[in-house]
């Protein structure tokens, strides 16, 4: 029996195309089309947007995005075995799905997407974190994307949304919250995937801010937070002394106690410290 979008159910697609999940590619598929539709809806205004989907696999989330009205979807998939299944989705939605066989870490997408661009992905966790950092650190801001809606291991989702004082607070929270507005929109148990992974997952949605939340130079902010969180249990006057001999004066200038530890310092205070180190205050 056809699924709600008129295409075959995903279990049938997987059986027809012999898509046994490959661990090396982080393949944990979502086969429930109600769930992929929910994830697609959490990406926001799809009707006016081009969507970059990374890792479409057998096409469950792709179908959700198209059924929910995405203007166009450009999908990058590394596993060539998935291409025939994705071609069937493309035929069902003429002119709206372009599938690129390639590695999301190296593929050239220039000229393929028209703003506003929303990025949506259920990716292997390591690839997802690397891409998130890359999407948050382009040389120019605002970036080419309007929002990111990404599946992560629940622990990583916590690291992205953590506040000063939380155990999970660190460089990822600072970077994500400096340039974007992240929030967890959905939590998923292992059983939501086939095969089930060992850990729970969460979908994080990040809206790009028009400009950084507080002024700071990206490279300086990264240097400061790398040093501070590299030795997160140490007092800042110790963990940051490698940056400049007069670190205590800079800390005092921006009102951060020299005895404070990185995990208790707000994003705003880290930005002020970066500005002070750059002579901008
Ligand atoms: C967790 S599965 C999700 C598949 C599908 N989106 C879903 O929700 O059921 C991850 C997908 O990403 C693909 N993938 C893994 N590494 C990739 C990479 N570097 N570039 C593009 N796709 C990749 C895998 O082949 C797989 O199809």
Structure write-up:
Belongs to the class I-like SAM-binding methyltransferase superfamily. rRNA adenine N(6)-methyltransferase family. RsmA subfamily. Its EC number is 2.1.1.182. The protein has 281 residues and is of the alpha/beta class. The protein has two domains: 10-208, Vaccinia Virus protein VP39 (Rossmann fold, 3-Layer(aba) Sandwich); 218-279, rRNA adenine dimethylase, C-terminal domain (Helicase, Ruva Protein, domain 3), CATH 1.10.8.100. It has helices at residues 10-16, 33-41, 60-67, 83-92, 125-136, 154-161, 171-179, 218-230, 236-239, 247-253, 267-277; strands spanning 50-54, 72-77, 97-101, 117-121, 147-153, 180-188, 201-208. The protein has a seven-stranded mixed sheet, with helices on both faces. Helix 2 packs across helix 3 and helix 8 (218-230) packs across helix 11 (267-277). It is elongated and about 70 Å long. The protein starts with 9 loop residues before the first helix and ends with a helix. The mean pLDDT is 96.
């Amino acid at each position: 029996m056809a699924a709600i979008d008129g295409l075959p159910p995903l279990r049938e697609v997987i059986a027809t195309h012999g898509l046994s999940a490959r661990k090396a590619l982080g393949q944990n598929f979502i086969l429930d089309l109600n769930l992929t539709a929910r994830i697609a809806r959490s990406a926001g205004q799809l009707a006016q947007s081009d969507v970059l989907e990374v890792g479409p696999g057998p096409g469950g989330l792709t179908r959700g995005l198209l059924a929910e009205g995405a203007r166009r979807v450009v999908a990058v998939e590394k596993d060539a075995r998935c291409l025939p299944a994705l071609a069937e989705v493309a035929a069902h939605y003429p002119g709206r799905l372009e599938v690129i066989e390639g590695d999301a870490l190296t593929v050239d997408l220039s000229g393929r997407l028209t703003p506003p661009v929303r990025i949506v992905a259920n990716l292997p966790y390591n690839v997802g974190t690397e891409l998130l950092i890359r999407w948050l650190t382009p040389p120019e801001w605002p970036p080419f994307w309007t929002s990111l809606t990404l599946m992560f291991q629940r622990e990583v989702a916590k690291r992205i949304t953590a506040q000063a004082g939380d155990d999970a607070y660190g460089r990822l929270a600072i970077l994500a919250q400096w340039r974007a507005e992240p929030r967890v929109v959905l939590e998923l148990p292992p059983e939501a995937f086939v095969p089930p992974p060992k850990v729970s997952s969460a979908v994080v949605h990040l809206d790009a801010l028009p400009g950084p939340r507080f002024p700071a130079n990206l490279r300086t902010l990264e240097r400061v937070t790398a040093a501070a969180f590299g030795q997160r249990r140490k007092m800042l006057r110790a963990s940051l002394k490698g940056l400049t001999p007069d670190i205590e004066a800079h800390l005092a200038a921006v009102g951060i106690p020299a005895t404070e530890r990185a995990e208790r310092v707000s994003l705003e205070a880290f930005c002020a410290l970066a500005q002070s180190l750059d002579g901008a205050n």
